[in-house]
């Protein structure tokens, strides 16, 4: 992102260095959510087997919600004077995690892999909240609200791979 011009202003009341740090945290979350929405759609297209239709139909609302989260973060980056960059190559270049490992696969295989994706996204959102606490309470609140929804989505996924005794099948 070295060729991206950052504005010489930020939202009133935020110091420029705090805004730049918040933008970096938000950019990481934006990349993660763009990746998540594409991963969710990939699973939607490639899940097969028993309970296919329930999982297939569960994923589209998650895709839509994550897409909205991504837009909210991108607009906050711009509000703080940053430039949200969402081009495919830039997203791949900024990713810190491996690609989703399952192609066409059974419901249980996809949901186990998706649970791991949500673990990473949700843990990193929680870390972002801690980082943003001292930088920008507006961004902190935004990410906190997103985390509540992301954790619910993970709960939906885990309901499919949890035993009656509360154990996740890994």
From TrEMBL:
<dbReference type="InterPro" id="IPR002177">
    <property type="entry name" value="DPS_DNA-bd"/>
</dbReference>
<feature type="domain" description="Ferritin/DPS">
    <location>
        <begin position="24"/>
        <end position="162"/>
    </location>
</feature>
<dbReference type="InterPro" id="IPR008331">
    <property type="entry name" value="Ferritin_DPS_dom"/>
</dbReference>
<dbReference type="InterPro" id="IPR012347">
    <property type="entry name" value="Ferritin-like"/>
</dbReference>
<dbReference type="GO" id="GO:0008199">
    <property type="term" value="F:ferric iron binding"/>
</dbReference>
<comment type="similarity">
    <text>Belongs to the Dps family.</text>
</comment>
<dbReference type="Pfam" id="PF00210">
    <property type="entry name" value="Ferritin"/>
</dbReference>
<dbReference type="InterPro" id="IPR009078">
    <property type="entry name" value="Ferritin-like_SF"/>
</dbReference>
<dbReference type="InterPro" id="IPR023188">
    <property type="entry name" value="DPS_DNA-bd_CS"/>
</dbReference>
<protein>
    <submittedName>
        <fullName>DNA starvation/stationary phase protection protein</fullName>
    </submittedName>
</protein>
<dbReference type="GO" id="GO:0016722">
    <property type="term" value="F:oxidoreductase activity, acting on metal ions"/>
</dbReference>
